[in-house]
Structure formats: C-alpha cells, structure tokens
User: Fold this.
Amino acid sequence: MATVERPERAMVVFAHPDDEIGCAGTIASWTKQGTGVCLVLCTNGDKGTEDLEMTPDRLAQIRAKEQRDAATALGVSDLVMLGYPDGELEDTREFRGKLVREIRRFRPQVVFTHAPVAVTRHNHHDHRICGAVTLDAVYPYARDPWHYVELTRGGFQPHKVATVLLWGGDNPDVFFDITETLPTKVEAMMRHHSQFGRPNRDPNRQPGDFMREGARRQGERAGLQYAEAFSKLEFRV
Ligand SMILES: [Zn+2]
Assistant:
C-alpha cells in the first residue's frame, strides 16, 4: 500500500458539480490541518436533471451556487468554474491550456482527478476526458516552458506536480482515513441539493447512507473504519 504526505497545496479537477465528493473527506481533513486547496470544476452540470420543466441555464445557476456552498463546507475558498457544457468536455488545446494555467497559478504538489480508465465499469464521457486531460496538463504541459509559451510569457511559470491521485480506478493503492471527516463529506454532498435532495424511496434510509457504506467498504480494505481510496501516480520533480 502506498502513502502520501499531506501537502501544502492540493488541487481537485473534476467534471461535474458534486464529483469533488470523490475526495471530499480527504480534502476536509487536509484543509483543517492547513493545506490550501483549489477546486477546478470543468463543466456547469447543466444536463443533470430528469425534469423537463427545468432549463439548462437555470440548472447551471443552481448548481454553481450549490458548488460554492459545498466548497465552503469543505473549507475551500479557491473555486474555479470553467463552464463547459455538461457532456461536451473534449480533449482540446483550449481545455488543456485552462488546466495548465490553473496548475501553474496555484502550484499544487498533489492533484486529484477522475481515473480516466476503469475496466470493471463504464465511466462517464466527461470523467474520462477530465481525467486524461488533467494528467496531460500535469505532464508535460504544465512543467515545460515551451508548451503554452504564451502562458509562460504571461507570468505563469512552469510547475512540477509530484503526485496525482485518481478516484474511481480499478486498483486503488492509497487509502486515507476519513473517519473524522465523513460527516463533513456527507454535509458537502447534501449542499448539492438538486442532485441529492430527493426524499429516499426507502424511509429507513438516511441521506448519505450510500456514502457511508462506500467509505466503510473502502475502509475495510485498509483496516480503517471509513476511508477514501485512490490510485497514485508519481512524477519526478
Ligand atoms: Zn460526474
């Protein structure tokens, strides 16, 4: 099993409002201990409803507010929303450049994102693209000055990220104890009210039960009560 030291600065790059929940317990624990965290939300989540009375514009506004509230619950004040349409994230120079800019600006030692590949289940299109483009942005584009040289010349100096942690992969090897911050993770999830605010079909189940069960299952693999699990990629710095 691998380990990761708590860094000075960490960044989370995620596709939709609420996907940051994949590492929210770890983020809440780290911000409490003094780590600076930046959340980079790639799409506006404007397709995330079955309600045909809702409009994409209105939903995007609701979800942006929910995302700000969830960030606050996690102790994060640096939130960047790139605003791409939900379901339409593509591997383009423009999108990669926006991630390079944020990495060079915030200069995190650790970056969290979606695992771009999972063989044992289907992975949402935006999750795959977000994970793959984030990895590319980390290496080589953020660290080499002649990539996005217009950013380099504009003051965004190259930066070397040491570690990327992927959630949702097939074989996680890093487990963080989130026993203390599980309630904060559930609270952050509940701030995404448009996604998780519906009453449970089963009256015996509490909101957040499925999240507790997931954290318990991950914890079991590492001898912890509740955990979040990641696959670790290391880069030479
Ligand atoms: Zn998502």
